[in-house]
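DM from R.C. (forwarded with permission)

"hey, sorry to bug you on a friday — could you get me a structure for this? deadline for the figure draft is monday and I only need the backbone to look sensible"
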Amino acid sequence: MCGIAGVIHRGGMSGVGAEMTSMLKALKHRGPDSTGFALYGTPVAGDYVMRFKVAEQEDMGSGFDIHGKIRDRLAEVDRRLAELKVTVKDRDASTEYAMRYVISYEGDLEHLARYVEDVEGTEILSLGSALELVKDLGDATVVSEQYELGGVTGTHAIGHTRMATESDVDIRSAHPYWAFPYNDIAVVHNGQITNYWIKRREMERRGHRFMSDCDSELLAVYVAHHLAHGITLEESLERSIREIDGVFTYLVATRDQLGMAKDTMAAKPLVLYESDDLIALASEEVAIRAILPEEIDTYDPYDEETRVWQA
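My reply, with the result:
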């Protein structure tokens, strides 16, 4: 059992960091192991925000010299960025192991990502124009405060509270998931994909990268592949109902859209609120009421339902 949430403001900016924190705090009982946020703001022409980690949180208490390893890994990341002629405009360490770089780069983003991730212990969580993806162990309060997300403004966001079932409790296995070559995509998922390995091998044969053994990552890769080949988000969501087996409900965010899909059996819950200015979705209505305490009408999407909203 996990919790998923999404919010999108049509035609304006809002405090999506605080909103998503409140929604995920209300879903804490659905998953205490890790919490993740995908937050979308206004892109700056030519700039990318690279969120990455050079160690797992659990490594910090290990007996070997992790602090020295982290320094060496960061130095190697910086060396490789300089080699690729990447301009680093800003550096910020959210934790000792998690970094936020604002960069300018005119080359191939996939080549950049693969070269950086070739550094031992390094994983890019997101490399977006509008997207910033943050995830770590702990509940929404812990992660939001640790990464100072309460003041983040933007147009839309998705989030996830995770109860680990089939993969490890670490940052690598936490949601949301990001995938290149479509760099501003993020996915959160509640459910189980039963043809995961078949579809994963299919995507790997096409050259796509997987960083975990979590079945949810497949959805990010699957949708990113479609979008990069000119398929709309609406069509990708509809295809997933036919091509991906299992019980699932998932949310997808791109630079300017938020989408949802429920499988044929609709076994995994989702509640939806929609107005002219705001759409909010979550595994339980209590999360929507965390940001909309007034009297509102909600409904449960049907089986095989897919929806897409524009920011």
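R.C.: lifesaver. The mean pLDDT is 92.
me: no worries. The radius of gyration is 18 Å.
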